[in-house]
Task: inverse folding
């Protein structure tokens, strides 16, 4: 009789465990089924700016219990189009897009639009803005203006080399903003131009060519900080570091270090983590059917030797 009671109790405990485990599985399944999945495709994740932007996205999305799939297009537009198609096949809730080429991304935009998937364009605008739901970026035109105004405060005239990125609208806007200011002064002239596609190696090679072919360069404006690092490497090899002013855009920790060491003059700083956070917030509002502004600008500011210590040398702002 005693044995029967023990066996009965044992069976009851097993039943309770099984029921509890079953409830746990149902809850877990419910939570998983309610979890949204988002996709992000960047022109490159080699540039730490985009890795930090991705961190800002992930911070907000994961706080909501959702998942982010991030792809590096490796500056290959066809690859990025395939990535967008993969997101469409996965039926993601929204796509965050930093395009390789502002024009050639159009077929992917139309495919996502047809599938009813919102697209939040980040940092670098696409040409067909009517095909995206929202653009979150810095005021790139103003970034170029800020660089030009800092230059005007240091020189009364200059022969300038421009290292830009002809397939990225953000870089083109920075160059246009810069030119809008210096064009008012006859003593400031762009005498050389090279498209680096925003990376260090091409900027290094381009700057070496400029130094060989164009005499008396006083200033280099690189439209992002990685390109500015390539320029600095070329100047260092030519023993010209410190003799030519070097400007960038981004406000990266390594750029701030170069400013402290007097190897770089200034950078127009933006906040990639804040771009990511704002973009994630916009995605949730769009999914809920709320109306959002078509373009949202995150503040931008100049960092130079005079104020660099105010901006946290080892981190993005």
Result:
């Amino acid at each position: 009789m005693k044995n029967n009671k023990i066996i009965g109790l044992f069976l009851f405990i097993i039943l309770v465990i099984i029921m509890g485990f079953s409830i746990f599985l149902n809850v877990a399944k419910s939570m998983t089924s309610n979890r949204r999945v988002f996709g992000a495709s960047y022109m490159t994740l080699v540039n730490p700016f985009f890795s930090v932007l991705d961190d800002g996205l992930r911070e907000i999305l994961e706080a909501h219990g959702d998942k982010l799939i991030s792809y590096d297009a490796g500056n290959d537009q066809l690859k990025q189009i395939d990535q967008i198609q993969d997101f469409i096949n996965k039926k993601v809730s929204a796509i965050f897009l930093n395009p390789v080429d502002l024009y050639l991304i159009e077929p992917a935009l139309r495919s996502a639009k047809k599938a009813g998937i919102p697209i939040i364009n980040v940092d670098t605008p696409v040409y067909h803005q009517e095909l995206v739901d929202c653009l979150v970026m810095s005021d790139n035109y103003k970034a170029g203006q800020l660089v030009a105004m800092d230059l005007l405060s240091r020189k009364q005239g200059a022969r300038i080399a421009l290292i830009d990125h002809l397939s990225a609208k953000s870089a083109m806007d920075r160059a246009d903003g810069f030119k809008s200011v210096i064009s008012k002064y006859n003593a400031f002239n762009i005498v050389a131009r090279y498209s680096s596609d925003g990376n260090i190696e091409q900027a290094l090679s381009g700057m070496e060519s400029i130094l060989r072919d164009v005499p008396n360069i006083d200033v280099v404006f690189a439209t992002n900080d990685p390109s500015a690092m390539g320029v600095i490497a070329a100047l260092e090899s030519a023993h010209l570091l410190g003799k030519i002013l070097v400007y960038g855009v981004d406000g990266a920790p390594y750029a701030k270090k170069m400013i402290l060491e007097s190897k770089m003059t200034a950078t127009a700083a933006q906040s990639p983590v804040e771009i990511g956070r704002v973009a994630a917030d916009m995605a949730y509002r769009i999914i809920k059917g709320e109306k959002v502004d078509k373009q949202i600008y995150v503040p931008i500011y100049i960092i130079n030797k005079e104020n660099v210590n105010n901006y946290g040398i080892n981190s993005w702002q």
